[in-house]
Amino acid sequence: MNILVTGATGFLGSRIVKKLLLKNTVTNIIATGRKFNRYNPAISSQKITYLLGDLTNKFFVEDLFKNPIDIVINCASLSSPWGTYDAFYKANCTTQSNLIEAAKKSKVKRFIYISSPSIYFDYKNAININEASALPKKLVNNYAVTKVEAEKMIAASGLEYVILRPRALVGAGDTVIMPRMIRSYKEKRLKIIGSGENKVDLTSVSNFVDAIWLAINTDTINCNTDYNITNGEPIKLWNAINYMLEKLGFQKITKKMPASVLYKIAYAMELKATYITKKTEPILTRYSVGILANAVWFDISKAKNKLGYLPKQSTLEAMDEFLEWYLKKEKV
């Protein structure tokens, strides 16, 4: 089996590559990304060929398919709460279009697209959301808009596909979710938003990579659809954040701020970023406030029943895995 992994130099992509290397049925991995970094360096193996470049370039994408590809795993994405529609479209949709076109020409057997449960979010508590749940009339940001558009592209392509939506990946290699919390704490900006009782889903990256392997190998009858993927154990978000902080030797967060106040502050910051600074992401966005203040968790019974997905690593184990990695990489 020959597999193309996009975004392979990032957190998730590098973990996918490591998983695939352990599988005897995988003979060749084409791993592509923009550039390496010190958190996710190149992996040395005869099975891997790294081809770095820009997926918005059709000619570069065509080169990725010079040798036969059986499976495409597209996890390349611009993921951010802030940015212009054009920037997100180019990163999330133009790349998707180029990959689909090349995959069809190469007669790829299956296309696995890594989307996002952000498409469901509408600044409210989201309890037990499943794949049949209606999307908001107005999506929360340009990231969510373009992820939905990219999903529609693969659904209309004629390729056999699986769409996976992981919620808040945690584990070794994470340079976004937990590091942002740590950075905000060090800058004395981190406060409990709302009651602090909101439960959320986090997802072990190890469990999610297992789900990708299941999607690669599942029967065709389970394809051409979408799956929400989480750890299946909603936990109190601020308890989890304080667990991490205490493990790092910091004081727990106890001070609270009303979400309504922070929404207004975030809105003012967004207006300034839109009309004055224009290019700079505001320190606080309404999306960030909403994610930290609301209960957000999902029904994963579809993935369990159809893919045979069973989370193996608990949320706290995934956080411990992150902490062990982080302490080796950073000076706290």
Task: State the main characteristics.
332 residues, 41% helix, seven-stranded parallel sheet, two-stranded parallel sheet, 11 helices, globular, alpha/beta
Show the helix and strand layout:
Layout: E1 2-6, H1 11-21, E2 28-32, E3 48-50, H2 58-64, E4 71-74, H3 85-105, E5 110-114, E6 126-129, H4 142-155, E7 161-166, E8 169-170, H5 177-186, E9 192-193, E10 199-200, E11 203-204, H6 205-217, E12 225-229, E13 235-236, H7 237-247, E14 256-257, H8 259-277, H9 286-293, E15 296-298, H10 301-307, H11 315-329
Parallel strand pairs: 1-2, 1-4, 2-3, 4-5, 5-7, 6-15, 7-12, 8-11, 9-14
Antiparallel strand pairs: 10-13
Which runs of at least 5 residues are low in confidence (pLDDT < 50)? Answer: none
Instruction: Count up the helices.
Output: 11
C-alpha Rg (nearest Å):
20 Å
Query: What spatial form do the alpha-carbon principal axes imply?
Result: globular
- The total of beta strands comes to 15
